[in-house]
Design brief:
Blueprint lengths: L5 E6 L4 H13 L2 E7 L3 H10 L6 E5 L16 H6 L3 E10 L7 H18 L3 E6 L6 H15 L4 E3 L6 H9 L3 E4 L9 H9 L5 E3 L21 H12 L3 H16 L3
The structure holds zinc ion.
């Protein structure tokens, strides 16, 4: 049997050298398309250079909620990013009231600005949303913003979704895609497996969020896009379908949202 191919629709790299090495290693494992998400503008500038030398690497440029207070609002560099032909999304953007590294006002201001930018550039967005324990405030605020965004024709993925099934349905009504990562292999993450069963088949994406969230049996160590097949196997088991089916389905979905090869 030929090796199956997969995409990683959400990961991070600290440097071009690291991206070069890891993307090559991952290609050997059949990972033919990797979408690296920037956390800040300097991060996006590094990726903008890296994608020009790495065939299976694509990128998303944006300002992570943790970085929101440090962002001056200047988006002129996005024209250079788009000129590479490998800018496939605005991201990672969103809200994080769990860590609270940036004040909520800055987070919301930057999130709104990035959504408007995505609409003007006709790009999808990769959204991070994390709430405090026993709170749905971040989901409520994110839902309100994405409702307007999707009404204007915007398309989005909620990466690493870990909210309630009820909010998942509300986001799905807006046409959301959902990113499934190594958490699906964690022993106690029954909620993640429940969600993975519920996602509409045409809206599921595979992601690692590397270097974080390495799947079992690598949990706690450094994650890499090369581990995508472990996540795909877990997803296939949860949904009761073959690995081939997961490969085909998630590749098609990644192509539909991000137009990555
Ligand atoms: Zn991320």
């Amino acid at each position: 049997m030929n090796m199956l191919s997969f995409r990683d629709t959400h990961c991070h790299f600290d440097s071009e050298e690291l991206a070069l090495r890891i993307c090559a290693e991952s290609l050997d494992q059949g990972i033919t398309g990797i979408l690296a998400c920037a956390s800040s503008i300097p991060d996006a500038q590094m990726l903008c250079k890296a994608v020009q030398n790495i065939p299976n690497l694509f990128f998303a440029a944006g300002v992570h909620p943790h970085e929101a207070a440090n962002f001056d609002g200047d988006t002129a560099c996005f024209a250079d990013f788009a000129a590479t032909g490998k800018l496939k999304a605005v991201g990672e953007i969103g809200l994080d009231v769990y860590y609270d590294f940036a004040d909520h006002e800055s987070q919301l201001r930057v999130f709104r600005q990035m959504l408007d930018l995505a609409l003007s550039m006709n790009l999808p967005v990769s959204v991070h949303c994390r709430d405090k324990e026993d709170s749905e405030e971040a989901y409520r605020l994110t839902y309100d913003l994405l409702k307007d965004f999707s009404a204007s024709g915007g398309r989005f993925v909620i990466h690493s979704y870990s909210g309630s099934p009820a909010y998942m349905e509300r986001f799905a009504e807006l046409g959301a895609w959902f990113g499934v990562n190594g958490m699906i292999t964690f022993k106690k993450a029954e909620n993640i497996r429940t969600l993975a069963k519920l996602y509409p088949a045409d809206k599921i994406l595979l992601e690692t969020d590397a270097p974080y969230l390495a799947p079992v049996p690598h949990r706690g160590k450094e994650n890499t896009p090369a581990y995508i097949p472990l996540i795909a196997e877990a997803l296939a088991a949860v949904r009761g379908v073959s690995l081939e089916e997961i490969s085909e389905l998630t590749n098609r979905n990644a192509g539909n949202l991000f137009a990555i090869l």
